[in-house]
């Protein structure tokens, strides 16, 4: 089959190139329409109970992650000139496109009693910009008396203040969010320039904007860097510009197909799919290396270019197909997770891994037909002294020191197991964000002065309509509020109680000591006053109590304390307390919000990625059984690829690298890639075993001689290719790059040393006929004697005559 396919590719090379070019042109057209997503939090399955309730919460109360905050801390902020500039900043932001409201010290409002109309009026504390320092001080005192805002917008102990900017929901997950947030940042930058007061930023709209900006930048950066690095390595090995050019051409076609596939499937660029072009480049390079090496090895044997090109397909076509399918399986198992962004990443990566085989098999052999035969200089890389020395050393170790190899391997596994037991599973909301963006330092600012800015929502179901009007329920709600205020990493909550207490304070002419829950008799007196003359204030009331008066919302902000501490906070503190306060079975408390869903999504990612790794092991083992039917050989093939994964996991534990989505992703990817070398080596071993009539030692040595160099080439390219991700600004991408590089580096040695050692040990002798053991029923791998004769005259590339 593969001999006929080789003949077909050579004979119809021009047609195949035209078809490939046409498909690439179509994919390029589709790729021009690619978009980037503005929602990075779709990681919890839609049927998850917490997600179902969050969607209900969203319908009832609206978006909880639409607040961007700007923080300042400076005593001179409360001096007249600087405060007036702060005043201008707040109102400029409030009037900006895409902004619902901007709540801060200059925009605070207070409730006042309208005795004539028996209603409460909402009036601004700062009716105008103060003209003198004394007027400013009086206004500041009046603002401090409004306990509704206590601890929320000003920290008087540290002279810190913030602006809470509410972004319109329609702009949150659209391209316009970039414009809205950028405009706010520009206004804040102008304020900083005029006052020399440092500004800090946080909130999900801001964090997502930073992510989008940096994902776009890294998409281009890694695409260019991966091309440069792999091209330089290829030129260093082959010393042939044609090899670099053709590989670069394969890279371009593959990247275009990748981006086109993303659009065809209706996907957008996410943090994961943004890595795909660079990732696929790295994965596709080994195909080129094995094909070039085989072409040069064959040409050196017999000096016939067409025959050498045919042998590329004939001898390693099936192997390339199987290795690409293994890699594809490593990715495709991710499609069966419950996480949307992982499903998208796995499907696209799996499809393109399979397509890479087709692209390589068409582009390289066909273009080689149009090139002159390689000269002696271009074949020099086959005798690269350094690599030959390394190869000889590997053979020496395998033949003479197998016991030492096993002892060292066992020791490394033991150390790795110790490290694995020390691995911690923890992640943070801004875990992987760039340090250069300042997001983490700004977040620390808000946690220090305002206990955090990450949204946490608590909804109390009072069990019946108008339950909010029952005094005993109000008392319970007040008890819950007091408890939440006592927690270290939780900001004072906002709820209907703030409005009710503020109404009582206004009823008693604004005196702060009356900021309390009204008694039953006071509620009767206040009932007629509770209707304000301000539509915004009525809307504010509706954002804390549903229209039936049954569901009451407490909205808090929490520090980014990580999954473990957050779980402890919710499950060991808040939830037990709510059950104590609301023991009635008809009343129920729900804890929800974007923060909890994000952290729960991370746990989903880790669980699903771990499960997908098990599936990858199982499916790749089945594919190995398709090539080698003997269970012994399947076991031997898996061991050298499991050891690197154990070693990397051990390093994570020993160096306190937590298990999180970005680090859990490496194991399936690494396993799918590293086993390619195993397939190439075992297939060559099978050929040589037949050639040497069952002499295992000679087959092992010869296989190392011929496949060892290619395995080293590809391992170095993969190591360097993944290592470029360490230049990322995202912590998760750095971890993915470094740990995957380490895993593949370890896999190079286990495939070059442990694998041959196991073959010799399992043979139980120097010359035993193992060929019947590993022989399979699929005649896919050929020795030179199996070659089908090709009419070389008909396949000869003819040059045009000059008439």
Brief descriptors of the model:
803 residues; alpha+beta; five-stranded antiparallel beta sheet; three-stranded antiparallel beta sheet; elongated
Describe the structure in your own words.
With 803 residues, the chain is an alpha+beta fold. The chain is built from 27 helices and 10 strands. Strands 1, 2, 5, 6 and 7 form a 5-stranded antiparallel beta sheet that branches. Helix 1 (2-11) crosses helix 11 (305-332) and helix 11 runs antiparallel to helix 23. The longest helix has 35 residues, at 204-238. The protein is elongated. Mean pLDDT is 82; it is low at 765-795.
Return the structural class.
alpha+beta
User: Unreliable runs, pLDDT <50, ≥5 residues?
Assistant: 765-795
Q: In which range does the helix fraction lie? A: 55-70%
Number of helices: 27
Beta-strand proportion: 5-15%
Brief description of this entry?
With 803 residues, the protein is of the alpha+beta class.
In terms of topology, how is this protein built?
Layout: H1 2-11, H2 13-31, H3 49-61, E1 67-73, H4 80-94, E2 99-103, E3 109-114, E4 119-124, H5 133-144, E5 154-155, E6 160-167, H6 169-172, H7 176-195, E7 199-202, H8 204-238, H9 241-264, H10 276-302, H11 305-332, H12 340-369, H13 385-400, H14 402-420, H15 439-450, E8 454-461, H16 471-486, H17 496-507, H18 520-526, H19 535-542, E9 551-558, H20 562-581, E10 588-592, H21 594-627, H22 631-654, H23 661-691, H24 696-723, H25 731-763, H26 771-774, H27 792-795
Antiparallel strand pairs: 1-6, 1-7, 2-6, 3-4, 5-6, 8-9, 8-10
Helix pairs in contact: 1-11, 2-9, 2-12, 4-7, 8-9, 8-10, 8-24, 9-10, 9-12, 10-11, 10-12, 10-24, 11-12, 11-21, 11-23, 13-24, 13-25, 14-22, 14-25, 16-20, 21-22, 21-23, 22-23, 22-25, 23-24, 23-25, 24-25
């Amino acid at each position: 089959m593969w001999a006929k396919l080789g003949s077909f590719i050579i004979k119809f090379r021009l047609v195949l190139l035209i078809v490939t070019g046409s498909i690439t042109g179509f994919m390029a057209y589709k790729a021009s329409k690619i978009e980037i997503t503005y929602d990075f939090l779709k990681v919890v399955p839609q049927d998850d109970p917490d997600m179902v309730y969050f969607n209900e919460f969203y319908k009832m109360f609206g978006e909880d992650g639409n607040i961007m905050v700007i923080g300042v801390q400076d005593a001179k902020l409360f001096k007249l000139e600087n405060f007036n500039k702060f005043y201008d900043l707040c109102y400029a932001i409030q009037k900006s496109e895409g902004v619902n409201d901007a709540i801060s010290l200059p925009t605070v409002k207070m409730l006042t009693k309208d005795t004539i109309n028996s209603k409460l009026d909402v009036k601004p504390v700062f009716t105008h910009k103060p003209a003198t320092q004394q007027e400013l001080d009086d206004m500041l005192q009046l603002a401090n008396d409004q306990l509704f805002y206590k601890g929320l917008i000003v920290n008087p102990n540290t002279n810190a203040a913030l602006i809470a900017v509410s972004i319109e929901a329609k702009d949150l997950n659209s391209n316009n969010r970039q414009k809205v947030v950028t405009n706010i940042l520009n206004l804040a930058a102008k304020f900083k320039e005029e006052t020399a007061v440092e500004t800090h930023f946080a909130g999900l709209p801001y964090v997502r904007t930073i992510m989008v900006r940096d994902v776009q930048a890294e998409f281009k950066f890694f695409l260019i860097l991966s091309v440069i690095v792999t091209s330089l390595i290829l030129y260093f090995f082959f010393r042939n510009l044609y090899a670099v050019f053709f590989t670069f051409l394969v890279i371009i076609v593959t990247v275009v197909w990748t981006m086109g596939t993303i659009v065809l499937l209706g996907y957008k660029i996410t943090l994961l799919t943004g890595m795909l072009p660079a990732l696929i480049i790295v994965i596709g390079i080994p195909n080129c290396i094995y094909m070039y090496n085989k072409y040069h090895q064959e040409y050196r044997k017999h000096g016939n270019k067409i025959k050498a090109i045919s042998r590329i397909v004939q001898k390693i076509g099936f192997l390339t197909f199987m290795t690409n399918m293994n890699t594809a399986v490593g990715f495709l198992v991710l499609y069966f997770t419950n996480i949307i962004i992982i499903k998208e990443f796995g499907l696209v990566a799996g499809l393109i891994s399979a397509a890479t085989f087709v692209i390589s098999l068409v582009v390289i052999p066909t273009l080689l037909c149009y090139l002159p035969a390689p000269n002696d200089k271009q074949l020099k890389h086959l005798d690269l002294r350094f690599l030959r020395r390394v190869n000889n050393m590997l053979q020496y170790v395998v033949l003479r020191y197998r016991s030492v190899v096993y002892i060292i391997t066992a020791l490394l596994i033991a150390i790795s197991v110790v490290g694995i037991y020390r691995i911690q599973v923890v992640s943070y909301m801004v875990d992987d964000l760039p340090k250069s963006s300042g997001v983490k330092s700004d977040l620390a600012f808000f946690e220090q002065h305002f206990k955090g800015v990450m949204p946490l929502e608590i909804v109390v179901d009072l069990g019946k309509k108008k339950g909010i009007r029952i005094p005993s329920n109000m008392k319970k709600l007040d008890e819950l509020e007091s408890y939440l205020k006592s927690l270290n990493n939780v900001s004072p909550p906002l709820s209907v109680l703030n409005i009710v207490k503020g109404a009582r304070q206004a009823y008693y002419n604004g005196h702060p000591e009356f900021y309390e829950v009204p008694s039953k008799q006071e509620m009767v007196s206040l009932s007629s006053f509770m209707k304000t003359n301000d539509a915004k204030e009525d809307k504010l009331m509706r954002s804390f109590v549903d229209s039936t008066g049954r569901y009451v919302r407490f909205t808090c902000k929490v520090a980014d304390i990580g999954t473990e501490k957050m779980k402890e906070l919710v499950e060991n503190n808040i939830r037990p307390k709510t059950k104590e306060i609301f023991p009635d079975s008809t009343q129920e408390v729900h804890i929800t919000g974007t923060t909890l869903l994000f952290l729960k999504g991370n746990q989903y990612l880790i669980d699903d990625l771990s499960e997908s790794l098990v599936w990858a092991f199982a499916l790749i083992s089945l594919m190995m059984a398709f090539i080698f039917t003997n269970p012994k050989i399947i076991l031997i093939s898996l061991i050298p690829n499991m050891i690197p994964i154990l070693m990397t996991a051990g390093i994570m534990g020993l160096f306190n690298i937590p298990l999180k989505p970005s680090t859990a992703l490496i194991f399936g990817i690494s396993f799918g890639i590293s086993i390619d070398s195993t397939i190439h080596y075992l297939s060559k071993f099978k050929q040589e075993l037949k050639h040497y009539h069952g002499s295992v030692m000679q087959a092992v040595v010869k296989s190392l001689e011929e496949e060892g160099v290619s395995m080293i080439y590809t391992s170095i390219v993969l190591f360097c290719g993944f290592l470029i991700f360490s230049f990322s600004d995202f912590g998760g991408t750095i971890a993915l790059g470094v740990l995957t590089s380490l895993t593949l580096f370890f896999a190079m040695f286990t495939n070059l040393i442990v694998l041959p050692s196991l073959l010799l040990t399992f043979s139980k002798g120097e010359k035993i006929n193992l060929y019947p053991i590993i022989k399979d029923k699929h005649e896919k791998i050929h020795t030179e004697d199996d070659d089908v004769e090709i009419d070389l005259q008909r396949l000869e590339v003819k040059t045009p005559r000059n008439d």
